[in-house]
Amino acid sequence: MKKAYKIGFIAAALALCFQPAAYAAEPLKSYMEIKDGRHLFIKTYEAAPDEDPSGLKEEPFELDGFSYSFLDMEKDEIISEEKRMETQTKTTESQNNDVSAILEQLPLSIDYDKDGFAGKLLLDSDSVSTEVKGYTTQTYTVRDSIMLRGVSNNDISLVPKTTVKNGVTLKLTGVDWSVGTSAPVDYDSVPMSYNGVASYSGSYTRKIPTGYVTTAEYRGEVINRTVDSVVYTVTYIGEKMPYTILGKGGNGGIPLLAVVWGVGLALLLGVAAYFLFYPNTIIYLKDGDATQRIGRERVKYDNPVVDLGKYDVTGKEVAIKIKQQTANKLFGRQVKTIADGGYSFKCLVDRQYSDFWYSVTVPERAEENEE
């Protein structure tokens, strides 16, 4: 059966070579595939990014008893990447130099998009620095007062003309006098001493920052992605071509059509028997790097189970090979392996177009192990 399949595939490939190409480039790969009961013929091409793929679509063609017509086209870009480290500086202004408040104004990351390179740059907190944007001059007034007690006369010349407060020299601006003590003279009250409050005033100037400028650096890896080429997968679907059998009647001979039907029925029964009864899974016992085949099993598609119950494998490692055709049909499904003592193990079939291998170690006692 395998030999017949290979001969058919080689014949199909040879027939393909004589099909006229609708596109200047030769296909990278051409192959037949049966998917969901449909006969598909698939070609892949590699083209330049700016090349028009419409010429890849071929007119219907005949191949190995099937008439193929265009079904769909898929596009897969082949991309190359160039990476480099990039640094950008960002500034922000604030009214004060409160570091925590300034950091809240700075984003943790910024987008970079220049010269074909793109990516995200992250804030380097160690690079943050704040400087004064500029200064303005502001004048401040300072006032003070001195209490005067027991002054002999309310003469301003007796009062100090200046005083110092917080390093600023203040000038006398006035005195508010009041009688301290008095004595009667000829029935009048005559002041003997005076009290007073001397007022002083002065000013000073000071440079005040008009604001602050904070500078921060952002660093990160940026990538330039370039489409080098495009791989197009063109799929054609095949329909079985009707055919006629021409021949002449013989003297009592068996009609050719009957022979063909008989041969076809025999092949159909053989294929059915092959798929129903022929083992598609091989059991090996592993001993280090060495393996020993101990049996063959038939795994069903509707309920894929490998039963090791009839083998002496308790406490041993077993390797299981599911043949390629069966693995293709079980792709994406789980195969259950069981053994004596309630042991159960599930394995996901995640490989196509080759034999699928997996191994299990049957424990001494029953354990449930699913994956």
Account of the 3D structure:
By secondary structure, the protein is mainly beta. Among the domains are: 2-78 and 229-240, no CATH class; 281-370, no CATH class. 14% of the residues lie in helices and 57% in strands. It has helices at residues 2-17, 99-105, 256-277, 324-329, and strands spanning 29-35, 38-47, 61-63, 66-94, 109-114, 117-151, 162-165, 168-185, 188-240, 281-287, 290-297, 305-307, 317-322, 334-339, 343-348, 356-361, 368-370. The strands form three sheets. Strands 1, 2, 3, 4, 5, 6, 7, 8 and 9 form a nine-stranded antiparallel β-sheet that branches. Strands 11-10-13-16 form a four-stranded antiparallel β-sheet. Strands 12-14-15-17 form a four-stranded mixed β-sheet, with no helix packed on it. A hairpin with a 2-residue loop joins strand 8 (168-185) and strand 9 (188-240). The two termini are 35 Å apart. 11% of the residues are buried. Residues 1-23, 246-253 and 366-371 have low confidence and may be disordered.
List the helices and strands and how they pair.
Blueprint: H1 2-17, E1 29-35, E2 38-47, E3 61-63, E4 66-94, H2 99-105, E5 109-114, E6 117-151, E7 162-165, E8 168-185, E9 188-240, H3 256-277, E10 281-287, E11 290-297, E12 305-307, E13 317-322, H4 324-329, E14 334-339, E15 343-348, E16 356-361, E17 368-370
Parallel strand pairs: 12-14, 15-17
Antiparallel strand pairs: 1-2, 2-9, 3-4, 4-9, 5-6, 6-9, 7-8, 8-9, 10-11, 10-13, 13-16, 14-15
